Amino acid sequence: MKKLSIAAVLSLALSSPAAFADQRIKTRLAGYQEVPSVSTGASGELELVISRHNDFIDFELSYQGLQGVVRQAHIHFAQRHVNGAIVLWLCQTTLNPAPASVADRLETCPQEGTVRGRLTAADVVGPQPPGTAATQQIVDGELEEVIAAIRAGAAYANVHTTPSPGGEIRGQIGNDRRGQGGKGR
Q: What is the pLDDT of residue 181?
């Protein structure tokens, strides 16, 4: 019986492309995806490459046409049409610096252009400020939880600006059936 179980596990592992390859996910960012929606000509794109061992995420965030001064950009944990907690910072500014635990590893957000980086478990931030209730239950360091949320379509990226402090452009990441983001887009 053990041989059958081992064979079944190996068969499943070999049939899973994630077992041998990094996973690439792209999403488009637009004002209409913000909650509430924002009327803006700005646009953006986020590409994530999740390592096959789920131990890091490489990212490239590009955006242009924002109506105001860029304040910050992050990945949040929440489903479509809902605002959620920040779990990963993509870039920061002096107007809105990241928490001290991750600030030294982040680029400054350009007014327009591209930011690239690598995110690891050390970059996952729990509830801010520290010590507040963790209603969404992702805490510092839980990268595999964030990756699971991304794959389930329960994460989004957005870029915040001065006229739109809640976010000017947003894109749902991961499992998206309407073509606004998701694998291979």
A: 35
Question: At a CB cut-off of 8 Å and minimum separation 6, what does 165 contact?
Answer: 71
Q: Is residue 153 exposed (0-12), middle (13-18) or buried (19+ Cβ within 10 Å)?
A: middle
Does 126 map to a domain?
Answer: yes
Would the CA dihedral through 140, 57, 175, 181 be positive or negative? positive
Q: How many residues are there in the chain?
A: 185
| H helix or E strand, kind and range, residue 70 | strand 70-77
CATH of the domain at 62: 2.60.40
pLDDT at 134: 55
DSSP summary character for residue 90: E
Range(s) of the domain holding residue 50: 22-183
pLDDT of residue 9: 46
If one counts the domains in the chain, the total is 1
Two tokens, residue 85: 């907690």
Minimal CA–CA distance to 147: which of 106, 98, 87, 99? 87
Indicate whether 13 belongs to any domain.
Answer: no
User: Is the model's pLDDT at 72 over the cut of 80?
Assistant: yes
> Does residue 161 lie within any of the structural domains?
yes
Query: Does the structure show a pLDDT above 80 at 124?
Result: yes
Structural tokens at position 51: 């390592």
**Torsion from C-alpha of 56, 58, 172, 98, nearest 10 degrees:** 80
Note the pTM of the prediction, 2 decimals.
Answer: 0.82
Residue 10 lies in a domain: no
